[in-house]
Structure to design on (230 residues):
């Protein structure tokens, strides 16, 4: 069974601080995505990474896919209250999951003004 | 485009009752999915469909049924509601199943919050 472990589970920081969220697995994934979910809404895709070592930037958010395609990180610079939400990583594979997404349990981020 | 829409937004059921959660997408996506999200547990796949008339079980299918008669609609049926089915249910759709450069980018509806008492 493929699993994605996210850490930390909860994170509460002040506006302007930097933070990193981790997504780790013992399995290799063909692609990995990060979603953000706000209370009462469905997850919204932030980014897809597909190449080992790939780095993508989305304004103040930097996403990295590990060289071995088993892990990923999300770094937020100068966090703002609008970044508050649940961050989910999700991996897909040509193998056992047949392309379906395997989700981590999420990191709940709270940014206080 | 409305994207993925779900109805109802909230529902309370008594044990043993039945209901259908509706899901519609207007993006002409072939692939559609049903997930449940329990507190602190991420999203678990219940059923998915790769096109009209084709459905398959996900990780947690017991107690649920689906059908896919059209590209747009993918209803989820609960036949005999149980307290263990209290959860938030999300429908999603995607254009690709697993594209080399795009992975499996899914678009989610706003969810249905179901309580079974």
């Amino acid at each position: 069974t493929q699993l994605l472990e996210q850490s930390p589970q909860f994170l509460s920081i002040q506006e302007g601080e930097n933070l990193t969220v981790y997504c780790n697995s013992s399995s290799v994934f063909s692609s990995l995505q990060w979603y953000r979910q706000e209370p009462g809404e469905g997850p919204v895709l932030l980014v897809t990474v597909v190449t080992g070592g790939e780095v993508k930037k989305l304004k103040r958010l930097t996403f990295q896919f590990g060289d071995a395609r088993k892990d990923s990180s999300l770094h937020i610079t100068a966090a703002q209250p609008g970044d508050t939400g649940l961050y989910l990583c999700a991996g897909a594979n040509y193998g056992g999951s047949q392309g379906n997404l395997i989700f981590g349990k999420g990191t709940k981020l709270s940014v206080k003004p | 485009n409305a994207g993925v829409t779900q109805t109802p937004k909230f529902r309370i059921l008594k044990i043993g009752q039945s209901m259908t959660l509706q899901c519609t997408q207007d993006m002409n996506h072939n692939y559609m999915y049903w997930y449940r999200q329990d507190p602190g547990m991420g999203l678990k796949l219940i059923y998915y469909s790769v096109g009209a008339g084709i459905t398959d079980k996900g990780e947690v299918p017991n107690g649920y049924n689906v059908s896919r008669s059209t590209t747009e609609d993918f209803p989820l049926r609960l036949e005999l509601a149980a307290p263990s089915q209290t959860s938030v249910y999300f429908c999603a759709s995607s254009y690709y199943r697993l594209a080399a450069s795009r992975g499996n980018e899914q678009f989610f509806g706003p969810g249905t919050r179901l309580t079974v008492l």
In short: Chain A has a mean pLDDT of 93. The radius of gyration of chain A is 14 Å. Chain A touches chain B through 26 residues (CB under 8 Å).
